[in-house]
Design a protein that fits this description.
Blueprint lengths: L3 H16 L5 H8 L5 H13 L3 E2 L8 E2 L1 H11 L9 H11 L2 E6 L5 E7 L3 E6 L3 E5 L2 H9 L5 H11 L2 H11 L4 E4 L1 H10 L4 H9 L9 E3 L8 E10 L2 E10 L4 H8 L1
Antiparallel strand pairs: 1-2, 3-7, 3-10, 4-5, 5-6, 8-9, 9-10
Amino acid sequence: MIDKKEFLLHSIIRAYIENLEPIGSNQLKSMYDLSFSPATIRGYFKKLGDEGYLEQEHISSGRTPTIEALKSYWGDKLKFELPSVEYENLKLLAHNMGFSVFILQLQSKKLKRVLNIESAYMILEFESFVITVRFTSALYRFLNDMIGLEADDILDVARQVGATQLYEELNRYLQKSEFGMINIKYFLKFAVRYDLSEEIISKFMHGSVMQNLKEGVYFENLLPTGFMGVCHKTKIGQDNVKLLVVGELSKDYDYFYRGII
C-alpha cells in the first residue's frame, strides 16, 4: 500500500509533468483536492528534499522532482505489456509531444538446426534465414545447445563469450531487418545539443541499437542524463515489432501510451 510520503511524491511529479513549473503546497492541494493541510504537505516536501527526490531553487519557490525521482517514477510506472499500437496515432503523438520512435520489425528467428559440413564450416538454419560460419568443435557443441533459442538471444551470448565470427555474421543479417523511425528530427536535435558521438548516432540511425535491447526502461546506460528510452515488443497491424520511444523524463508518457493503443 502506498504511504503518504510516496503518494505526495507521485502527486507532485504528476503536477510537474502537467505544468512543467515548480509546484507549491497550496497549488498541489488545490490541483488534486488533497485532504492534507498545506503545512503537512510542506513537511513531507522537506523530507522528500532531504532524501534527494525534490529540489527547490530558493526558499520561497515551489518544488520540482529531481532526475532521480523521475527515473524511479517512470521506471516503475512503465513496466507493462503493450499488445498493439495504432501507427497513425503513434506518428501523430510522437510529433506533437516531441518523442522519437524507432521501430524494428521482428520475424520468428529461432535456431532450428546446425549442420556440420565436413568439419570445415557449419550451416545455421533459423526459421526465416540461414547463415554460415567456420567449424570448430567447441562452437558446434555450443550452437547445438542453443537450438530453439531466438537469434537475438544467441547474438547476445555470442558477444558475451567472444564468438566473433558468429556474432558478426548474425549481426550482419539482423541489421538488415526492416527498420523505421518517427520524428528523427527531434533525435538529431538533442544528439547535437548533447554532443553524442558519431558511433552512437549511427547505432540509432541504422537500427543496430535495437538489436540487444530487452523490454524495459533505459536511462544513462543508453541516453544523456534527463532522457529516457522505453522499449516494448508489440504489434503494429499484423507485424510484430520492437518499439523504442525516446524522450525527456519530464514528458507525459502516461498520456502518450494511452493515446497510441
